[in-house]
Structure formats: C-alpha cells, structure tokens
Amino acid sequence: MLDGTGAAPTITAAAADTPPVRATLIQRDRGLLWHPYAPLDGDAPYAVHSAQGTRLSLSSEDGSRFEAVDAMSSWWSAIHGYRNPALDAALLEQAGRFSHVMFGGLTHEPAVRLAEQLAAMTGLDHVFFADSGSVSVEVALKLAVQFQLGNGRPGRSRFLALRGGYHGDTFAAMGVCDPVDGMHAAFPANIAEQLFLPRPPAARLVRGVLSADTAEVSTWIAALEATVRAHRDELAAIIVEPVLQGAGGMYVYAPECLAAARRVADENGLLLIVDEIATGFGRTGKLFASQWADVVPDIMCVGKALTGGYLTLAAMLCSARAAQVVTNSPLRALLHGPTFMANPLACAVASASLDLLTTHGWQNQVAGIEHGLAAALAPARSQASVKEVRVLGAVGVVELSSPVDVPAATAAALACGVWIRPFRNLIYTMPPFISSADDVAAIGAGICAAVAQVHG
Hints:
Its cofactor is pyridoxal 5'-phosphate. The protein is an alpha/beta fold. It folds into two domains: 25-82 and 361-455, Aspartate Aminotransferase, domain 1 (Alpha-Beta Complex); 85-360, Aspartate Aminotransferase, domain 2 (3-Layer(aba) Sandwich). It is built from 14 helices and 18 strands. The radius of gyration is 24 Å and the shape is globular.
C-alpha cells in the first residue's frame, strides 16, 4: 500500500520477522458473547477443542489443557456421549437428502417416524415439534388455554404450578417458574400472575422406592385440593416437573403428590401438564419420571436428551381428548408455528437417539450409574459444609449449606479430570448414560474433592 507521497512504506527487518499477536479464543469471547446467566465481563469460560465419548478436551485462559469426564452431559442432553457413530451417521445421511424444509403444508419421513416413536413411548397421541424446551412449554400452556376456550370456559386461563419449579426462560414459561426463588424476578410487570403451591414433601430413594413422610404428603394434598376448589373457574391446567425439580434445586419429591395432581385435575376439568424436559428418557430411573406415580398426563413436554445433545429440538405431546377439543373449536388449529419446526436433521438424529436408548439397555446403564454415584458421593457426607447427598437414577447431588464458589469448585474438579457446572448451593452431576464405572468413580472423586478443597 502506498503512503501519501506515492512511495511504499519501509518495513524494518524486526517488524517483518515479528508475528502478529493473536488473541486466544477465550480472549476473543470475553466482552463479545453472553453466556447463560453470566455478565459479559464475568469469569473466563473454558475453551472446548474436541469431544469424544464421555470426554471433553478443554483449555483455560492461561493455556492449561485438560482432558475431563463430562459430568453434566452438556446440561443433561448428551446421554449417548459425543461423536456417537450412530448419531453421526443419522445426521450425515439426512444432510445428504435435505437439511431443512418448512413444515407448513409439507411433511417428511424423519418427523413422522420420530412422532410415531414418541407417541409409542409416552402413551400420548399427538405431537407438536418446537425449537427448544422453553418453547414447548409455551405451546403446552397455549394448548391448555385453547382447550378450556373450546369447552366454553374462556375464564379458565391461569395455571397452578409448584414453588421451586423451573420451566424455561420465555415469558409464559417464566410465569410458571418459582416467582420468588426463581431466576426471573426482574420481570414482574411482564409476567402473568399464576397460582403456586408449596413444594411437595421431599422423598428419598430407599431400596428402589421413593419414600416421603406420610403426614406431610397428606397435608400437601389437602392444600392442593383446597386451592383448586377455590380457583377452579380460573384455572386451565396444573403444570409440574414430575418427581424431580431440576434447575429449581435438584429436588426430589413424593410421587403421591403427582398422582394427587392427576386426580384433582380430572375432578375439576383441568389438564395436567408434565415438564419432562430434564427428567425424560430414563434420567431418573424410569423412562419418564411420571411413571414413578403411574401417571399419564394430558400434556407432556420433552427436550434436552431428545436428540442426544446433537441439535436443539423439543416436543409437546398431548392426549386425543385434549387435541379433539382444539380441533372441534372455531380456531381448529393450535396457534403456534416455528420456522424450524420439525427440522429434518434434528428429527433424524432424535429418532436415532431413541433407537439407541431402547436397544442399548438404558435401564442397566442408569442403574449402574445410580449404584456408582451412591458409593462415589458418599464420602462428601463427612464434610461440615454438606447439608445432604442424594442420588436418583443418573442424578447425583451434593447440597451445601451455603452457595457454591462456582469458579473455585469448577477448577478443583477439573484438576481431578472432571467437568462440572455447579449452581446455587449444589454441586451435582447428570453424566452420560454411556459412562463407565471408572467414569462414575472419577466424577464422584472430583465432586468430593471440590467440596473438600473449596468448602470443607
């Protein structure tokens, strides 16, 4: 390039020999990207370089490299691990045909096949594909309101939810999350006011049975019945995370309370919505957590593990009864329609993931993880900072008496070769179902080390 005199600029030998200083990936990220529930100038993330099976290859800001067991299944979704050959093949095969088409006026094999699988697995009759778990909850809430409208009950437009619940970050979903201890208190003027019951009584797994205090369960059910009686003419549905509340605290509650919600909904003309986004596809030791109470809901939301962690996809499933009322109403249609609804790539991978789930013995995989976590997390009970250790299926939780020092606990576990992402006062794990006994032992050792070194 010429300067203003028309002469080429002089380049010294030193300048020519000095390579440009390049920012690291983490430095390029900082201040540019928001991460979930984190400030732009927050703690530096770790960079992922590759992933295979249960392992992540990571680096930190100072250039340190780590090979770590992923104890989180990428927020509970990668149940078959990374670079699974069957899922890779399904993705590539579908990409060779077509990657996406609009779902308005069109259909395709991956969507139909996946819907057939989901209907057979859940006992529900109809499927609506959505972009994410939160959007599937939005659709479920819309369906419940349209159901009541179609039955000539336009005043029934509110929802009864549980304290401690979490159902997503979009506005209607925020409205049925815990209104006090949830993550959405900054938006009170924008969220419809719903009704909430206290958390159901806690339950603990004892020889394969979830047990709770009988008197506490009876008291909670009485409160449920009284609340619905008082508000039945304004309620459209009851919405719950069945048996395990995830982001609200990894809280396990009595299945009898879920069964009571089913009964009370039926007695009062309400729909029962179960949010199985975190709990579905075997995570709690049942294919769906609703099965702990032998409950079939009117509406079920699934997501996360649906595609084995490969692509974003969720679904809202409903009963024939619920769908028929909407179909017979003046509107006839369910009023929602995402651009990427039933994306063929996502549906093809999800279908392959469900095939793996049913053919690779998820029950034995989850039972082995449950047994391993119970033993591997037990030493944490000796720490003064620990309030409780609990395990249900492929979920292990160490609950502390005070908030977790997230960066320090993450670093301590990573030094042991384990990737965790604690929150609130919980250091927990939801490992991939393909985790070996050695993987599970390593996860337990990493979590115990994080508790001991950081909180004592």
